[in-house]
Amino acid sequence: MGLPTVPQQSERGTVIVLAFSVAPSGTGCEDGPVHDAVAAAANVVRDSGSPNTTSSLFAETEGARDEGVGMVKRATEAVEPFSSRISLVSKVDVRPGCGGEPVAKVERFEHKIEVRRG
What we know:
Residues 19-109 form the Thiamine-binding protein domain. This protein is of the alpha+beta class. The chain is built from three helices and five strands; from the N terminus they run ββαββαβα.
């Protein structure tokens, strides 16, 4: 299971792999739960129509650069009602000539592990 393959170029521009995490810096609650805010951000990603995965730390997607940057902005805005401060961490991989990288990168990595194990 993984993300569907996305061509490296589209009518919408250069395709990128984007991983990001957005969360409130403080919720005003004693135990500091952030799941409601993170769920609001995750909904933005899932509703985008772009292929995506969500882990305990990051949302990962592949798509047009401008759409990806816009998605991060909308996800950050979705968290704003939960806190006066927001933490945002992101990593973007721009690789001309490559598409389907979220799946391909993991496959290459897993292959290298198997080779090293012999």
